[in-house]
Amino acid sequence: MLRTLKPSEIASYCDVHHRTVSRWIASGELKGHKLPGRGNYRVQVADFIEFLEKQGMPVPPSLSAHPRVLVVDDEAGIRSVIRRTLQRLELDVVEAAGGFEAGMLVLQQAPDLMTIDLAMPGFNGFDVIRVIRQQPEFNDIRLLVISGLPEPELEKAVELGANDYLMKPFDADVLLAKVQKMLNLRAFVR
């Protein structure tokens, strides 16, 4: 997913006025582009990180160059196994112990991909998928269901908007292959 920032967001990171950011873009100091129509500027995250590094400014951790994955499962052991497996792909991994926590983290962390268990107490995985797919700003988030429910339930999750599924117990190499494909990553594993 190609993430972009508004001048106001960049201004907040740099503690400057948004017009200063627009001048940086207009002068070519910061690589950006104008949106068709109103002409508002947008800057790709990678270009902003490059700008910060050239200026000797710190790069906020929330703008990591690595894709971010949100692992949603009520079992700490399963979250840990998924996290350790995905870190072999040099992904930033954030964990949520349930659907409600996942909802908050989606807003804060802007993940590129989510792994979602379906059978969680309270706000379950089906609920998470419905909410994510009802919000246009989350359309680019890839959803991978990882669940021990029967295959018809996993297929129902895909009908609701999940991109793919994996049955528990899962093979780590199959998980890595699915995530690489979903995020268009090169085939690299540490």
From TrEMBL:
Coiled-coil parts of chain: none
Which InterPro entries does the UniProt record give? Bact_response_regulator (IPR050595), CheY-like_superfamily (IPR011006), DNA-bd_dom_put_sf (IPR009061), HTH_17 (IPR041657), Sig_transdc_resp-reg_receiver (IPR001789), SinI_DNA-bd (IPR010093)
Q: Which residues carry this modification: 4-aspartylphosphate?
A: D117
Give the source's domain of life in one word: Bacteria
Q: Which UniProt keywords apply?
A: Phosphoprotein
Where in the numbering of this chain does the Response regulatory domain appear?
A: 68-183
Please report the name of this protein according to its UniProt entry.
Response regulator
Q: Which organism is it from?
A: Alkalimonas mucilaginosa
